[in-house]
Amino acid sequence: QPGSQAETIWQSGETIIATNAPEDLRLEALNLHHLAVAAGIRHSVLMPLATGGHILGYLQVANKQDGSPFDRDDLRFLAIIAGQAAPIIENATLVQQSRQRAQRAEALRRIASLTSSSATVDEILKFSLLDLARLLQADMAVIFLLDESRGELRVHKPSIFGVPPEILAKIGRISIEDTQFPFTVTSSKRQFVTDDLSETENILPLYQPLINESPGGVPYRLRATIDLPLVMSERGVGEVMVGSFRPSFFSRGDIQTVATAAGQLAAAIEHSTLYSQTDQGLRQRVEQLTALTRISRELNT
Question: Using CA atoms, how far apart are residues 236 and 10, in angstroms rounded to an integer?
Fold first, then answer.
């Protein structure tokens, strides 16, 4: 945590040499004293894995076979290993991040291409959500849309990923007149991101079936969740939610990816709404002209 003793120890980049690990205050600050007790660690060394001026972690060794403490030769040897391991770890991390960025870019490109195609809104939302869920390796993904003709927010059934039918049948709807509607992500236009839903209070009934159900006796409990609004012309028209059964599963990059996809989906919904309004207006105009023609014919007669 910022400002903690653990942060001070971490940023110092010093080698930690413990002769009595279970009672060492530095290991206690790093929350490693429980490991020392459980593993029977007595003598231990934590050699920093540093590269490019920042620390990646520690190389830990403990309990020499002859029971003696670690000497200068041991520390020198460990420093050589740590110096070789740190850049290898950093390079592997960079390669992994590069692959993830490429995968995100490709998934977002497919979503953008789909939203600009002649596909229907249902097809755009369905296949875009499927791409998004697979990219993030999510266990669940769902889209809620605001039905203004009925005045309610409800799940968009074509856009479902990883939700069993038994739970889908329990997902309700909420009227825009409901006192709880202003607290939804759609109405508030505020993102809801949590690392562990089990530690979150006051979950709206609309989302409850997705959090703690047991269809067929199998627990279905979401933990990490990203829920972002679909905003069209500065008003919420729905929300996209992705979740995982594992706590602290999503990263900041995942949140940004969902936000980008949500913006593209909202734009697709807006275009479809404008087209339908234009078509409806044209139909009304044709009907008016037809009626005026009949009236004119009757008057002339």
Answer: 43
